[in-house]
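Regression test attached.
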Amino acid sequence: QLQLQESGPGLVKPSETLSLTCTVSGDSIISRTYYWAWIRQPPGKGLEWIGSVYYSGSPYYNPSLKSRVTISVDTSKNQFALKLISVTAADTAVYYCATLHSRSWYNDYWGQGTLVTVSS
Amino acid sequence: QSALTQPPSVSGSPGQSVTISCTGTSSDVGSYNRVSWYQQPPGTAPKLMIYEVSNRPSGVPDRFSGSKSGNTASLTISGLQAEDEADYYCSSYTISTPYVFGTGTKVTVL
């Protein structure tokens, strides 16, 4: 059973960089079945897709965040990572990592989510 | 790419059926069968309920069904139960973004 676990700081200062890691267990990140995705949810609001990456690279990013986002894969650690630069209070959210089925574009496995608060 | 449009809330009594709509455009829902639905009880991660418009993953009750007509996809919950009370989101592949979620619908069991 594939499992995903987010990790990283729960508090980031405005204008700094948000960095999160997702550890994949139960399967290899070198998979032709999945993209690896980051999704966020501000408190009391809906889901927002941030971006996705294939194990070999070639990320897709939400155009609204593209200038500030980098998603990368570390195959040696079976992990993928999110970096979001120049954060503001509007980036406060629960951040989820998830699989994104490469053929049919659905998220079948999710991490439990981690709350990141942007505040000084 | 704007979010897909869902009604903010729907409600029904136990045993009744409710339907949630998810309206997109010819660039997403209308052109691709890559529509999925997620259930999110408070304080938990979303759970996949429907993929490829109408397919249920293993373990999802057959009370949940999906369909599509034109630019609008729908999720129907038949025989509504108290445990179905949650937020529901649709998502779709899009030619532009290339992935987008719906605005979300709160289902209340009266």
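Expected vs. actual: identical. The radius of gyration of chain A is 13 Å.
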